[in-house]
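Section 3.1: Structural characterization of target chains.
Under the original work plan, the team committed to producing a structural model for every single-chain target entering the pipeline before any wet-lab resources were allocated. The record below documents one such target. The sequence was received from the expression subgroup and is listed exactly as submitted; it comprises 273 residues.
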Amino acid sequence: MAKKNINEMSFLDHLEDLRWHLIRICLAVVIVATLAFIFSRFIFDEIIFAPLKMSFPTYDLLCRTATFIGVDTTFCNEEVPMIIQNRTMAGQFSADIWTAILAGFVISFPYVIYQLWKFVSPGLHQNERKHSRGFIVISSLLFFMGVLFGYYIVTPLSINFLANYSVSETVDNQIDISSYIALVRSSALASGLIFELPIIIYFFTKIGLVTPEVLKKYRKYALVIVLILSAIITPPDIASQVIVAIPIIILYQVSIFISKMVVRNQKRKEANN
């Protein structure tokens, strides 16, 4: 049966169309998650637990930097003072399942975006679809950049700070596996979503919710929000917050530039008509 024209589709037809896109997304995530579950030992040893080793690239770089400028730092310690343990019967199995699902979502993200775009694009004009062909590639690159930033920057900074923070020498850091994985997961996913800011601003500008003038006017308030976000997803030390805040501020400036381009193209289109 031929697919109905977007203008002929009722509300229920749209819901049915959305349902099939969501089913395809779930199937893709499940398939990739199954493969991730099969290779879970590699994922845990080489990826999830890698920031617990002082040979992790971030620690090595920060240790070399601190040594070069003559500053003492915990990044040069021989080991991370933290023990990961399991306190519940199904703890390790649950960690394995949810980590596989997370890996399935992250790896299949381009397909997820593709399916969402397939649902939205019929409602756009042909010219709008033409100028948005790079949406899937750009949004996927931004997301992966954010995940890598969260994994290589936010996660090791948080682990190093929290593992070395102590109220007393009598207290050892014996961390439950669910707590550790939650930190890695939130750092990576939060950063990945934050890096989607230019894409969000693009669509908000297209539908008239924001303008370049509004973004410029509230830039100082946005800076405060950025610092608050940095404080939430990083340990409470100034250096870590600045490291996280810098790329977010850059993304905000890029978003202003993108908003300007969208408005300029809309005005040009109106002038031609």
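The mean pLDDT is 83.
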